[in-house]
Amino acid sequence: MTVIEVVQGDITRQGTEAIVNAANESLRGGGGVDGAIHRAAGPRLAEAGAAIAPCARGDAKATPGFDLPPPIRHVIHTVGPVWKGGTHDEESVLTSCYRRSLEVADELGATSMAFPAISTGIFGFPPHLAARIAVATLRATPTSVERISLMAFDEETHRVLTEALAEG
Ligand code: AR6
């Protein structure tokens, strides 16, 4: 039985074993949540990312959490789609990000994990559509992860995630 919850706050301070990073293909860090995770994890994260890069859009790859506070032990880096009006497979790539991140968490044996709202910042994916894809994909993918936290860093993301969770 997997519990999916919406949590407001900073993903680098989550009480989960794994956190997902909305990364870019280089896995060396960037802005947004990627920057926050790299600052909190320290410089070894970029070294570990570079060693396993590139990560294709829709795929996910794991590194240790380095200096991130316990219980966080794993960072699962996934690369979301850049929104180009919805006609460039953006929805299926985002679906793949959630599915692959969950598969990697299972391979790591993580029982709890947290997701940021992948692609809805710098990459411009509409938040309400992204929230529905997140919830639908996580519900449809078999997993041993017991607790999944969907992180909302702002009010609108909190609202759309809460609505998507309440649907169906
Ligand atoms: N904790 C939780 N969520 C956060 C945090 C945080 N500390 N900081 C920001 N968010 P974005 P993307 C939210 O732009 O759209 C980077 O340069 C943010 O408010 O971080 O997938 C990468 O290297 C938004 O709701 O990711 C890529 O090049 C969500 O996280 C590119 O940006 C995602 O916003 C990825 O863009």
Describe this structure in words.
It contains five helices and six strands; from the N terminus they run ββααββαβαβα. With 168 residues, the chain is of the alpha/beta class. The chain has one domain: Leucine Aminopeptidase, subunit E, domain 1. Strands 1-6-5-2-4-3 form a six-stranded mixed β-sheet, with helices on both faces. Helix 4 packs across helix 5. The mean pLDDT is 98. It binds ligand AR6. Residues 10-12, 22-24, 30-34, 36, 80, 116-123, 151, 153-154, 157 line the site of ligand AR6. Ligand AR6 is lined by residues 10-12, 22-24, 30-34, 36, 80, 116-123, 151, 153-154, 157.
Large-scale geometry: globular
Distance between the first and last residues' Cα:
17 Å
Please state the CA-atom Rg, rounded to the nearest Å: 14 Å
What CATH calls the topology is Leucine Aminopeptidase, subunit E, domain 1
CATH architecture: 3-Layer(aba) Sandwich
Q: What is the level 1 CATH name?
A: Alpha Beta
Percentage of residues in helical conformation: 25-40%
Mean pLDDT across every amino acid position: 98
User: CATH homologous superfamily, by name?
Assistant: Leucine Aminopeptidase, subunit E, domain 1
Domain count: 1
The main pleated sheet reads as: 6 strands, mixed
Number of helices: 5
H/E element order: EEHHEEHEHEH
Category from helices, strands and their pairing = alpha/beta
Going across the biggest sheet, name each strand in turn: 1-6-5-2-4-3
